[in-house]
């Protein structure tokens, strides 16, 4: 049994294939179709399904958390553009009315297949748009127990804050027992400047919304850095997602 990765961006899809080939994420197949065109029958035979897969952060996170590749798992980081503050000037930024609001398509597949455990991630601003209410309302109506938290990347000593909403849904029926507390630390103004030896430091700054340092003086071209940012900027922080998965596993014990 292998993993299924759904990612419509050809650039990220090829990155996924390279990571699979290198053995960094679970072996599997990459489907470049929009989730709108994916049917439940297309998912038969796959143990894990990663939607809006990006560059495979959830698969890596599962491995970091000790979740075997052969253990069933679904993940999905739905598009953030309809709900992100960074896109408030976007004329298409309309919350649930935005055509990029693809939770209904993700839920369509969840409702039919009924995976036992689902993990997801979204920008925290989506809460104010009612996104999480819709997600949990749908999942609970399908028999899932749900939980969510907002955690910054700095909780795992990343050099930027990047707060994200993480959520989990479980339909095993055993209930929640306990949770693992994730300790958070603050990020100082100069924290991201302390790793200038890394040629991709500016790409990481760009992840935090600072694009002013995409210059040639670090030995990596602007084109390469922007290419890295294109992948990293839309990716989850795997080490943080791993803590979410570990917490879930402890709650299920």
Could you describe the 3D structure shown?
This protein has about 250 residues and is of the alpha/beta class. The protein has one domain (about 1-250): 3-Layer(aba) Sandwich (Rossmann fold), CATH 3.40.50.150. The protein is built from 7 helices and 7 strands, in the order βαββαβαβαββααα. Strands 2-1-3-4-5-7-6 form a 7-stranded mixed β-sheet, sandwiched between helices. β1, α1 and β2 form a beta-alpha-beta unit. α5 crosses α6. The chain is globular and about 40 Å long. It starts with a strand and ends with a helix. The model is unreliable at about 185-200 and about 215-220 (pLDDT under 50).
Query: Strands of the biggest beta sheet: in what spatial order?
Result: 2-1-3-4-5-7-6
* Percent of residues in helices: 25-40%
Write down the CATH class: Alpha Beta
Would you tell me which CATH topology applies? Rossmann fold
Rounded to an integer, what's the Rg over CA atoms? 18 Å
Structural domain count? 1
Shape: globular
User: Uncertain runs with pLDDT below 50, 5 residues or more?
Assistant: 184-200, 214-220
Distance between the termini: 25 Å
- Briefly note the structural class of the backbone: alpha/beta
- The name of the CATH superfamily reads Vaccinia Virus protein VP39
């Amino acid at each position: 049994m292998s993993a299924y990765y759904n990612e419509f961006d050809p650039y990220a899809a090829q990155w996924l294939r390279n990571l699979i080939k290198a053995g960094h994420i679970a072996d599997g197949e990459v489907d470049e179709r929009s989730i709108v065109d994916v049917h439940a029958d297309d998912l038969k035979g796959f143990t894990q399904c990663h939607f809006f897969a990006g560059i495979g952060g959830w698969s890596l996170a599962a491995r970091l958390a000790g979740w075997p590749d052969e253990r069933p798992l679904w993940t999905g980081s739905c598009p953030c553009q309809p709900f992100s503050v960074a896109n408030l000037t976007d004329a298409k930024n309309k919350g649930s009315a935005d055509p990029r609001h693809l939770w209904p398509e993700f839920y369509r597949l969840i409702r039919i297949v009924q995976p036992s455990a689902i993990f997801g991630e979204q920008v925290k601003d989506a809460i104010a748009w009612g996104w999480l209410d819709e997600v949990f309302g749908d999942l609970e109506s399908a028999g899932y127990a749900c939980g969510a938290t907002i955690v910054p990347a700095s909780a795992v000593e990343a050099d930027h804050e990047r707060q994200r909403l993480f959520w989990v849904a479980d339909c095993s029926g055993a209930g929640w027992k306990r949770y693992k507390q994730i300790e958070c630390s603050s990020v100082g103004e100069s924290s991201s400047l302390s790793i200038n030896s890394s040629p991709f430091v500016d790409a990481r700054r760009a992840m935090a919304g600072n694009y002013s340092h995409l210059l040639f003086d670090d030995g990596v071209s602007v084109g390469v850095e922007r290419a890295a940012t294109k992948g990293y900027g839309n990716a989850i922080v795997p080490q943080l997602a791993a803590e979410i998965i570990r917490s879930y596993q402890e709650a299920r014990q």
